[in-house]
Specification:
The chain has 171 residues and is mainly α. The chain has 6 helices and no strands. The chain has helices at 2-28, 50-59, 65-75, 90-108, 127-147, 166-170.
Amino acid sequence: TRRLSSRATRRRKQRTMRQLALTYSRNAAKSISAIAQAHNPPMALHDFHPAVAAWFAQAFSAPTPAQARAWPAIRSGRHTLIAAPTGSGKTLAAFLAAIDDLVRQGCDGTLADATQIVYVSPLKALSNDVQINRQAPLEGIRARLAELGHPDVEIRASVRTGDTPQSEREA
């Protein structure tokens, strides 16, 4: 029973990840009119770079309560624990604040070619969540930077697990 439960849970998570990826790709195809919302972003987004706020406004209707409460704490540099139900945007809350900082560094010309952010997840099963929650924003924000006339910012990211070959871990 436990093995079946585990398989069912894994299938449900994979289905959710596929749906989330599909949502991201559908939202990425929306018109540029959503970018105008970046000029009047919700209060939780007003401190983000305009391209980051524009991407978020185009991809989502509004920040979740967990995101709205977490971003000020994360952006102020405080250690932040986000305790909220599954699906409430905790991973994106953490990543978006970090991505925003990297985008600002890139636009200022101060983005170093070095590892700046390490996100550790206790579960290998969350690697798909991590992949989606970092790749979709990076691609979308890069497109918004171009649309808004900002310089291109190349932010590289990768996922490592216990199954990652040694050659990739050393890269």
